[in-house]
């Protein structure tokens, strides 16, 4: 029996047809698909009938929707001094959470590193207050949907608010809402965490979703991240969520590999490597 539920992001295949991706992930024996909102299911373009169709198609393939990611269009800000601007973020995430509910996805990853970056001249303390206010609104919107909103811990090159597990968990504890938890990514963790296993243990039950790329942001096994201790730490804390492969090529300029075949080979490599490591735990 596998120790973990494993999924892959639909954007690993670029803007390929979602149902083709779903069928291929089923063939590769994934447990779920993490749907890339901006590529495959924008809330304002995905009506009730389409949502039912996607859910049925995923179920028929023997998969589940493990979560939603890449949820933001441009032009939004979490640090704005204008409450109405921050409310636009909350309202957009609210529409994504409703979509997640309809697709029976347990989580939505809320990243938006640039949206958390202070504007020139803004004090970082003010930026932190505004970002936390935004995430408080998101957590309040998440509660009634039954979906967990994941405050994604990023790295210092992508944001100045929410860098690493310790900082982000501090904000989560301050906000203190049950529908707002931690989202992680081993690419970011490799930059920020002194010890990835220790950070997983620190997060404990606050960790609700984890992306699992290697140090080069592609499939585990070809970079320098040591995955067995990470998997052991996840088992130790009885991590209940999915391990999901969000793979990038040359982010943000060319986010996915240039051909379907290369995208597929990388995704297949990822699940094979982690399933093989599971056998050694």
How would you portray this structure in words?
The chain has 281 residues and is α/β, with parallel strands linked by helices. The protein has an eight-stranded parallel sheet. Helix content is 43%, strand content 14%. The longest helix has 20 residues, at 83-102. Helix 4 runs parallel beside helix 5 and helix 8 (196-203) packs parallel to helix 9 (227-236).
End-to-end distance: 12 Å
Beta fraction of the residues?
5-15%
**Total of helices:** 10
Give the biggest beta sheet. Answer: 8 strands, parallel
CATH topology: TIM Barrel
Shape: globular
How many E strands? 8
Concise synopsis of the structure shown:
The protein is of the alpha/beta class. The chain has 10 helices and 8 strands. It has an 8-stranded parallel β-sheet with strand order 3-2-1-8-7-6-5-4.
Draw up the topology in text.
Blueprint: E1 5-9, H1 18-27, E2 32-36, H2 37-40, H3 48-60, E3 64-69, H4 83-102, E4 107-110, H5 124-142, E5 148-152, H6 165-175, E6 180-185, H7 186-192, H8 196-203, E7 207-211, H9 227-236, E8 242-245, H10 260-278
Parallel strand pairs: 1-2, 1-8, 2-3, 4-5, 5-6, 6-7, 7-8
Helix pairs in contact: 4-5, 8-9
């Amino acid at each position: 029996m596998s120790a973990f539920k494993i999924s892959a992001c639909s954007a690993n295949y670029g803007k390929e047809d979602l149902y083709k991706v779903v069928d291929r992930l089923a063939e590769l024996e994934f447990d779920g698909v993490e749907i890339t909102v901006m590529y495959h299911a924008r809330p304002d373009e995905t009506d009730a009938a389409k949502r039912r169709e996607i859910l049925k198609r995923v179920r028929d393939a023997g998969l589940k929707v493990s979560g939603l990611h890449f949820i933001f269009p441009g032009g939004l800000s979490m640090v704005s001094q204008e409450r109405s601007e921050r409310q636009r973020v909350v309202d957009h995430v609210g529409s994504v959470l409703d979509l997640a509910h309809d697709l029976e996805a347990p989580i939505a990853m809320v990243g938006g590193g640039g949206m958390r970056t202070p504007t020139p001249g803004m004090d970082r303390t003010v930026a932190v207050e505004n970002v936390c206010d935004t995430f408080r609104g998101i957590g309040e919107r998440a509660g009634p949907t039954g979906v967990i909103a994941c405050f994604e811990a990023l790295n210092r090159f992508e944001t100045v608010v929410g860098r690493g597990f310790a900082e982000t968990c501090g904000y989560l504890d301050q906000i203190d809402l049950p529908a707002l938890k931690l989202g992680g990514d081993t690419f970011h963790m490799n930059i920020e965490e002194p010890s990835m296993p220790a950070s997983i243990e620190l997060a404990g039950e606050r960790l609700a979703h984890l992306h699992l790329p290697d140090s080069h942001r592609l499939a585990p096994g070809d970079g320098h991240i040591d995955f067995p201790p990470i998997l052991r730490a996840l088992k130790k804390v009885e991590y209940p969520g999915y391990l999901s492969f969000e793979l990038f090529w040359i982010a943000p300029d060319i986010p996915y590999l240039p051909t379907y075949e290369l995208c597929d080979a990388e995704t297949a490599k990822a699940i094979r490597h982690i399933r093989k490591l599971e056998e050694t735990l």
